[in-house]
Amino acid sequence: MKAEQKEQLYQILKKTSGAILGYTSNNFAAAPQFQDDVEPAEPAQTASPAQTAAPLSPNSSQAQEAAPVQQPDASEQISAGATIESVAQKIASCARCPLCKTRKNVVPGEGVANPLVLVVGEGPCADEDEQGRPFVGKAGQLLDKMLAAINLSRDKNCFIANIVKCRPPLNRDPSPEESQACRSFLDAQIHVLKPKMILAMGRVALQNLLDTSIGINKMRGQFVDFKGIPFMATYHPSALLRDESLKRPAWEDLKAFKNKLLEICPDYDK
């Protein structure tokens, strides 16, 4: 293969990777110098059994050189220059699923650049779709009050995002295909933001982030490890608006979340 053909193939793979992941992988951080392939030489005569080399020892230098290179996992493939703004730009041009055809605005998320807490909901509703901002309707107003009760705020120490970045029609739950189409964007946001803790609001956020079918009633208030980040789920604010009896257990969840955050960042609420 000619060097020019290799370069063309490399550029195709780079663009495809960026479109799928929502960010530029470190695998494409620096373009290699391609060269034309050398024509193979005439095959050598087959060696006799006596001339066959002994198998390589696992500790030999040749064996170590021949060992496959371990590839970094997906969370390490974010480009060093990626920012929350560059991820948002990818989201703005996304057309991976049918939700792009019915949205008014994408809702990538908002908050501070180095948040203590990443709050994750399910998807935009009509108000969010209209404004391009997450949690700005009645449920969003309640969320702000819930966060303020434990000294958290999207303006001070939180970032708020959703599983999907476009509104599902009639505010239905996002389908598995829609959630999967958006997942790399959320993974990129988590990698760039590096929150100290994650708070999932409701069943959809819980089940998608943890890839589980366990319901919110069973998992709420429990801490689990999410890629090295303490993670907890509680009821979605819209559920509290529908059923006020859920407010008491939600408040207990928030108090437990605050206590855990104080262990990590003792001065965060001062």
Structure, explained:
The protein is of the alpha/beta class and 270 residues long. 40% of the residues lie in helices and 10% in strands. The protein is built from 11 helices and 6 strands. It has a 6-stranded mixed beta sheet, sandwiched between helices.
List keywords for this structure.
six-stranded mixed beta sheet; 270 residues; single chain; globular; 10% strand; alpha/beta
Oligomer: single chain
Largest sheet report: 6 strands, mixed
Task: Give the beta-strand count.
Answer: 6
Shape assignment: globular
Span between N and C termini?
Answer: 63 Å
What is the overall pLDDT average? 84
Helix fraction bin: 40-55%
Briefly characterize the structure:
By secondary structure, this protein is α/β, with parallel strands linked by helices.
Topology:
Blueprint lengths: L2 H19 L39 H6 L17 H9 L6 H4 L7 E2 L5 E5 L4 H6 L6 H11 L9 E5 L13 H18 L3 E5 L1 H8 L5 H4 L4 E3 L2 E6 L2 H6 L4 H18 L6
Parallel strand pairs: 2-3, 2-4, 4-6
Antiparallel strand pairs: 1-3, 5-6
